[in-house]
Amino acid sequence: EAVRRVLLLGEGNFSFAASLCGAAGTYVVATCYESEEEVSGRGRAAESIRRLRERGAEVMFSVDCTKLKDYFFPEKREFDCIYFNFPHCGRKAGVVKNRELLAHFFRSSAEVLTEKGEVHVALCNGQGGTPADQPRREWHNSWQIVAVAAGAGFILSDVHPFKAETIHGYKCTGYRSQDKSFCVEGALNHIFTRSMPLLYFKPMICKIELESQKVSFQVPEVLVDKINRGFLELNSNHPVRTVKETLTAELSQAFPLQNIDYCLSLLHRGHLNGICHSNIFWTILSPEDAPSTEEMSNGLANAVLFSHVDFCRDIDKNGCPNVQEGCHMSKEYYLRPSLLPYAQAIIQRGTFVPGTLHILSGPVFRKCLIAPYCMPVFHEMVFVCAVNRGTENSCIQRMVNNIENSIHSLHQTVSGFKLNINLQEATSFETTELNDFAAFESQLSKIQYFICMEIDASGFCEKGACVGIVRTAHYELVSSELVFVFASLNLDLLAMLICGIPDWRMLWTSDTRFLCQFPRGELRLFKSFSLYPPSYVHDVSFWVPDGEQFDELAFHTIARWVSGEMVISIQLIDSFQQSETGRMSLCYRLTFQSCDKALSRQDVAEMQLLFRKEIKQRLHVTLR
């Protein structure tokens, strides 16, 4: 078994290092900032140093924690764990100086830490500035440790009390650079791990089969990390697939089933009743010799891609239509916003078996405003059943009962929170009460019922979150005797509610620490591996072009793209109209926060600059 290499920094009297030394499979390198002569005069330091050396540990002096790679040969730089207990610049240094110390320390640690290593930083009560501190200091008066660590690519993955009394022989020292102890009551140990790098969306071409031909299309840049992820494929352990498979198994007890996923294309063409063009991700088909995604990632395709975009400029890189003379949107393709048209097409072709529950599932794509449960892509599951007139209500009840039983069985294995699922008439909801999923479905056709789910302590409104809809339809040209019952479920939202996943973006993370929590697809209560992520606020104000309606949906879509989905909130905080000219000025507040990656102030500042540039260019606003 490999030896675990542990580096300890800033040891005052080496009593902490001595307590760790001797553990099986662990090699300790203990260091301090002062010289051996300075340290040896401290109480018990000489004894601890002697014990360390006797047990085979390496003891180093005059080590600067901000320049760690200078002290180790390249082959000895990789440590599995780095400890820095109660760092301080010394004497009466304030919070700003200590933040700077931590910032340099984290950057230095990144150079000597293994890929899956940990950095442990113990701080006195209140210094860290996280909600784990009780009482919690005001942010500006804390060391802001999570934001500081993010600058070096680290996320806070765990935090727990630093229990000095449980560490054999440990005695803290160094109060104001003296051989004096200090109060460690309420101190916390912060455990940091490496973050996945931030995602920057780049142009991408996707190849698919469409209408019996192989074609390529430009993927809207805001969706490049969400195309062809395979969450519902047979070898997937993703919780979204587990929810789908459990629903399918439960419904098979009540209905004969037919799965028709195999014939569904990502692209659709033609008119969708009630759907505004601006809610859809439009795209254009590329030439037959268009490069693949792999070739795009190698930078070989820009000339081909952009020469084709120049051919018809009615669609931009985020799938926004800019209708110009000579361009007809009815001839263009768009990423499917719903699976309902596919179900309707199967019915109208007459290939439907009455009494059989037909199942369609797959990702759908919809432009939406930035809000906690508004997803530009999610996995939809559609059930369709043809029944005799007069029996549709019985079919609806059977279908919903089986869906409810599936969700209850999944939820009971995950948590003890109380779960309520109910069928509510659509007429009992005001439009403003609908979440994004329900509101969009309401545009497609008339809805009879909403399937609502409510979990105690989930924070949802009294009526619960709408996770599905039920509608009925008649197709006289197909059959005058049959009624078609449709049910549609948002699998992503179901998985989030069942597993306690607070942020839809986490479902799409590429960090393996997400999926490893669901071995073999087994659902469990999700535990975040990025605690208390820092948030940053930026404002932007501008004049709207004269005589134009401001496109807020495009504004939000640009924010999603330039930030890599790091904007979690956009609020209109001020508007002003000049009485003399009638010009309208708007001011929006953007809040940036990641759920799974390190996000630094510098990262956000660059995103904000790019955002200002893009809205000026694409929305023709005049920045203030």
UniProtKB/TrEMBL annotation:
The keyword Methyltransferase does not apply. It comes from Grus americana. PROSITE patterns: FDX_ACB. Keywords: Aminoacyl-tRNA synthetase, ATP-binding, Ligase, Mitochondrion, Nucleotide-binding, Protein biosynthesis, Transit peptide. SMART domains: FDX-ACB. GO terms for cellular component: mitochondrial matrix. The gene is Fdxacb1. Its EC number is 6.1.1.20. Pfam families: BMT5-like, FDX-ACB. GO terms for biological process: rRNA base methylation; translation. It is found in: Mitochondrion matrix. GO terms for molecular function: ATP binding; phenylalanine-tRNA ligase activity; rRNA (uridine-N3-)-methyltransferase activity. Residues 531-624 form the FDX-ACB domain. The lineage of its organism: Eukaryota, Metazoa, Chordata, Craniata, Vertebrata. The keyword Nucleotide-binding applies. Belongs to the class-II aminoacyl-tRNA synthetase family. It catalyses: tRNA(Phe) + L-phenylalanine + ATP = L-phenylalanyl-tRNA(Phe) + AMP + diphosphate + H(+). This is phenylalanine--tRNA ligase. Its main location: mitochondrion.
